[in-house]
Each structure stands twice: as C-alpha cells, then as structure tokens.
Input
Amino acid sequence: MANAGILSMGSAYPEGVLTNADLEKMVETSDEWITTRTGIKQRHKAAENEYTSLFAVRASRQAIERARIDASDIDLVICATVTPDQILPATGCLIQAELGAHRAAAFDLAAACSGFLYGLTLANQMIRGGQARYALIVGAEILTRYVDYKDRSTCVIFGDGAGAAVAGPVEHPRGILSTRIYSDGRFAEHLYAPGGGTRYGSTPETFSSGLHYFKMRGNELFKVAVRSMIDVSREVLDEAGYKASDVQLFVPHQANQRITDAVADKLEVDRARVYSNISMHGNTSSASIPIALDECLEAGRVREGDLVLMASFGGGVTWGAVLLRW
Ligand SMILES: CC(C)(COP(=O)(O)OP(=O)(O)OC[C@H]1O[C@@H](n2cnc3c(N)ncnc32)[C@H](O)[C@@H]1OP(=O)(O)O)[C@@H](O)C(=O)NCCC(=O)NCCS
Output
C-alpha cells in the first residue's frame, strides 16, 4: 500500500486588509488589547464582490501547478468551509468546475477550523485504499461576512483566505504517519451562527436580530482548545512512535497566539519550531493551517524528511491532528 503525502501547497487571500487601527475606529478596542490578548495585528477582508470559491480556486491552481499534475488527474476535491458560496451546490463542485477537475468527486466539509485536517484525514484513507490517486483539499473562508462589526469580542479575531493542498502517493518513509479527528457537539454554542439555516431561516427578523452573525464564548473555547490540541497532538505522536522533541515544524491552527504558545510549551515543542502568522491573517478557520503550511514551504522552513505536526481546534467543537514526514 502506498503512503499518502502532501505533494504541494498554494494559498490566496483578499487584498483588502483590516488593521487594528481600523477596528479602533469601529468598536471600543485598542491595538494594545488585541495584540496582547490575541497576537493579531491585521486580517484580510474580502470586498463585497468577492466570494469563497474565488480564493479557493486561486490557491488550488497554485497547488496543482506546483504538484506538476493536471486538474483532470484529480480524483477528489474536498472543500473545507463554513462559509460556502451558496447553500447549493457544494462550493467543492464550483471549484471542481472552475478548475476543470472533471473526473473528481467533489463535496464540502463543515468542520470549522478543523476542516483542513478532517479533509486530509479522509484523503489519506482514500489514497491509501486505492480509491483516489490525487486529492485536492482546500480550506477556504470569507468569515468577515458573518462577523458583527459591533461585537468587539469576535470582530477582532476573524479574517478571510484560502489554502490548498494536493495529496497523492509518496514513497516510504515520506507521507502521513498518523491522524486523529474528534468532535463534541455538546459544546456547539461555544461558537455558532444560528441564522440562515432551516431552524431559524433568513427573514428580516433574523437579520435585524443578528442571528446570522458568529457568536462566541471566547473564554470557554480557549480552555477546551488548549486541552484538546495538546491531547490530540500527543496521540498522533504516540501512535507513530515519536516525541514532541522530534518534530521539526509544528503548524497549529492560528486562533490566538496565547493558545499556540500554551500548546507548544505544554507539548515541549521548542517555540522556534512553531509557525505563527496570526499577526498577519487573524483566524481564517479552515484556511489557517493550509495558508500557514504554504508560507512555511515558501520560506524554506520545511525540508524533505522533516517531521511536521499539525493540530487544530474549532467550532462544533471539532479538533484533530496530523503527523507527517515531508
Ligand atoms: C476572544 C479572546 C481573545 C478574549 O480574550 P480573554 O482574555 O479571554 O478576554 P475575556 O473574554 O475574558 O474578556 C476580558 C475583558 O476584555 C473585554 N474585551 C473583549 N473583547 C475586547 C476587545 N476586542 N477589545 C477590548 N476589550 C475587549 C471583555 O469585554 C472583558 O471585559 P470585562 O472584564 O469588563 O467584562 C480569547 O478568549 C480567545 O482567543 N478565545 C478563543 C477564541 C477562539 O480561538 N475562537 C475560535 C475558535 S477556533
């Protein structure tokens, strides 16, 4: 059985930027508060005429080109998103059509910030099982559409963007070594957007009461995020027979610099081996890990043979980790 690995990455995000100084003019906050509590300095924000698949397709084209394959070689398109272009069809299908990946099965995966690692886990199984040779896994979000710019506890956090990976067969010892994904719906209301679905619908009343906006219990999420990212990272390391000190690069979901630091310190991963871009992007949910990994590759921070750990946590709640040898 062939190992599955990531062959290439790509990323794209809107040109529009919302800085902490911009937010200071919109809500009662300060650059100092946002920086010390989250590590965020700016986040990208889509223009009104921009939509999720636009950035997903740009990121995917980059990844496909770098993998030196043709879009028609792709067997599987997984679009991890909680902010799809529209309710029907899946944004994955729109991406498939735009790319010309006509042979692929395409669908959306709604696991919030863990979506990319959920997608990578599924793709790994399909490639190893022989049902797919090449899989495209895209994490893409326009979160700012669902952010209430009157709510200072959420509007400083979220940003927009997309990251894409082409996964395919690789030679041992390269490839995905272990994966774990989890969820616990009992914490659904830690981060949720109740409006717009079949339960509350989209009516003038749901809009005027802001039911379509993200609502977040930041404090509770913080604690669950740190605990679950540590536990799941230890699990994938144990299963593959490695220690955290063996990891050359740790790419956690970029939710909050304090979460990243707490997880890295508790795992005892040297902070120099932890990648962070939260100051530039904020939290882009499913796009955060693939954008970060793409930046690591561009910066030469990953070399063949490196042990790479990725861990995520998000709304649902969902969490997961993937350990791979690049
Ligand atoms: C959201 C988060 C940054 C808030 O930081 P915190 O240290 O937990 O802050 P708290 O929520 O306890 O709020 C502390 C105070 O700051 C205030 N505050 C909240 N947002 C603020 C802002 N943007 N600017 C200034 N003050 C703010 C609160 O109103 C509160 O004031 P009070 O003490 O007078 O009531 C933090 O909890 C977090 O990052 N949580 C995880 C969120 C997350 O990762 N979400 C996505 C999941 S993937």
Summary: The pocket of coenzyme A is lined by residues 29, 33-34, 37-38, 113, 152-153, 156, 191, 216, 218-219, 221-222, 225, 255-256, 283, 313-314 (CB under 6 Å). The chain has eleven helices and 13 strands.
